[in-house]
Specification:
- The chain is mostly helical.
- The protein is about 55% helix and about 10% strand.
- A two-stranded parallel sheet has the order 1-2.
- Helix 1 packs parallel to helix 2.
């Protein structure tokens, strides 16, 4: 994909995340194509400005499991979770 077309969208997404910070946590998930380019670093930097978290798609499941375990411990502390 052409990064120069994605960067304006990333700015809009980041702005929206900022506007919604009090209501929800925004997590941006991306698929790495060219992590060495300057455009890539600019894109990730823009997203990180206002997001709760920015992660690779390979990290999503681990994050979801961790959040679910934290929620379970909060509301059902009697559960033995490892």
């Amino acid at each position: 994909k052409q990064m120069r077309y994605i960067i304006p969208s990333a700015k809009a997404w980041s702005y929206t995340a900022k506007e919604l910070q009090k209501e929800m946590k925004t997590i941006f998930v991306y698929d790495v194509e060219d992590d060495a380019s300057d455009s890539y670093h600019a894109l990730i930097g823009i997203l990180k400005e206002n997001a709760y978290r920015v992660m690779k798609n390979s990290e999503v499941m681990d994050c979801v499991i961790r959040i679910q375990r934290e929620t379970d411990q909060k509301y059902q502390p009697e559960l033995l979770l490892s």
